[in-house]
Amino acid sequence: MPELPETETIKRELEDTVVGLRITGVDVLIERVLRMDATEFARRVEGTTITGAGRRAKIIMLHLSSGETLLFHLMMAGSLLYQPAGMERKEKTQVVFVLDNGYELRYKDFRLFGYVKLLSEADVTQAPEFAHLGPEPLADDFTLDVFRERLARRPRACIKALLLDQSFVAGLGNIYVDEILFYARVHPLRRAGSLNAAESARMYEGIRSILTHAIAERGSSFSLFVDLFGNPGNYHNLLSVYGQTGKPCPGGCPGVIEKIKVAGRGTHICAHCQK
Ligand SMILES: [Zn+2]
Fold it and tell me: Hey, is 32 helix, strand or coil?
């Protein structure tokens, strides 16, 4: 599933390519992805200009000149592609936004779990997607003190489950949580309340630096992630533990990366380093 770095990559590419363009047509090929009537959707979107792109957690937004917002949730296997109108549309393309520069923005979802929503200005603030989200981990106001306060509220929670919990901090998923826990040298089964000051500081530093680095590398292309231009990211080549089962620990210890199960998720650790 695309996590924060992959979603942020697409958002930045949208900012550079489609903001300022007018949507001259909408083709809905699979209506149920919209969560609303396709005719109504097209009527409200056609003729608007894209005024901005945004992201919250793993959700991408496009703001329209009408004041309404398009919201894209890629879920497991969705992608947004910016392609010339003349290029063949891929299988499982669900919604196409025809742009006034000869290109199209195409939403496709291999597994059909993702969705596209159109929200009025009032609806955006009320959207259930945003109701219970924790802080953005790269925001200026997500400080070490804020992180520690939030850990202190859930002392008995398993640290891996907590980092995956979107209400604790938004945008992390299985790949980056495994990387962050290794960076902090903390075992995923530890209770949040058991972390000492050095461990919570290392974990906070890991969250910020790993996400920043992963965005710079345009995300990880495990599973099906591709960016707006159909290119894979590069960060999966730089992962320390995720997907590295059986390899020597990159920390230089004598350990080997193992895969265990934590919070119902395949979890990659160096049991030698992560205590
Ligand atoms: Zn190790």
Answer: helix
Quickly list DSSP for 196-232: -HHHHHHHHHHHHHHHHHHHHTT---STT---TTS--
Report the pLDDT averaged over residues 70-79: 87
How do residues 17-61 score in pLDDT, each as one tens digit?
A: 999 999 999 999 998 899 899 999 999 999 999 999 999 999 999
Set out the domains of the chain in order of their start, with CATH numbers.
Answer: 4-131 (3.20.190.10), 144-270 (1.10.8.50)
Angle between helices 174-184 and 197-216 (to 10 degrees): 130
**What are the helix (H) ranges across the chain?**
4-17, 38-45, 121-126, 128-131, 144-153, 159-164, 174-184, 197-216
Among residues 55, 56, 58, 108, the one annotated as catalytic is: 58
2 is catalytic: yes
The radius of gyration of the chain from alpha carbons, rounded to an integer in Å, stands at 20
Beta-strand relationship, 59-64 and 115-119: unpaired
Q: How far apart are CA 180 and CA 202, in angstroms?
A: 9
Q: Which one of the listed residues 2, 5, 137, 188 is annotated catalytic?
A: 2
- DSSP 8-state class, residue 251: T
Rounded-to-integer distance, Cα 140 and Cα 142, Å: 5
Q: What distance in Å separates the CA atoms of residue 219 and residue 74, rounded to the nearest whole number? A: 14
Q: Choose, from 3, 68, 104, 136, the residue flagged as catalytic.
A: 3
The reported pTM is: 0.94
